TrEMBL record:
Protein name: Microsomal glutathione S-transferase 1
Family affiliation: Belongs to the MAPEG family.
SUBUNIT field: Homotrimer; The trimer binds only one molecule of glutathione.
Transmembrane portions of the chain: 47-71
Source organism, top-level taxon: Eukaryota
Membrane-topology descriptor: Multi-pass membrane protein
UniProt enzyme class: transferase
UniProt cross-references to InterPro entries, sorted A to Z: MAPEG-like_dom_sf, Membr-assoc_MAPEG, MGST1-like
Length: 150
């Protein structure tokens, strides 16, 4: 207990998470061990934050495609000749639709930016998380083997 009467929280570190993971999984049979590790992975705060952020940005990216289409239809601003044939058969009216609109361009650039940044974000951040965990465990292994050999 602390001087304020509250119970002190133990120091949270990746090593404590690893020990808790191995203690709970070692009591299981080998066929259930993989499921146990996956269940413990779902309780990891970093993994949950990554999944939350990845879901939010992927949903935003998916929402931008219909929004671009909506702005193109309501502003009647299309970028190619084939898109103007939706309801107009008169070539003069179709030529008027071949224009750029600042609202359409803003949404289109936002969607293009999402496609360029979000698609590489998801696998690269997942990979960096795995590399970080491997580095942490290897450093802990080195420290413990050095400490035990002295």
């Amino acid at each position: 207990m602390c001087s304020s009467g509250k119970v002190a929280q133990p120091h949270i570190s990746p090593w404590n998470d690893f020990k808790a993971l191995t203690n709970t999984c070692n009591s299981q049979e080998t066929s259930k061990r993989k499921f146990c590790k996956m269940a413990d992975l779902m309780n990891n705060d970093v993994f949950l934050a990554f999944c939350t952020y990845a879901t939010i940005v992927v949903l935003k990216m998916m929402f931008m495609a219909p929004l671009t289409g909506y702005f193109r239809m309501t502003r009647k601003a299309f970028s190619n000749w084939e898109d103007t044939a939706l309801g107009k058969k008169n070539p003069e009216e179709r030529k008027k639709m071949l224009q750029t609109n600042p609202d359409v361009e803003r949404v289109r650039r936002c969607h293009q930016n999402d496609l360029e940044n979000i698609v590489p974000f998801v696998p690269s951040r997942g990979l960096s998380w795995v590399v970080g965990m491997i580095t942490t465990f290897s450093m802990a292994y080195r420290v413990l083997t050095t400490a035990l050999l002295l």
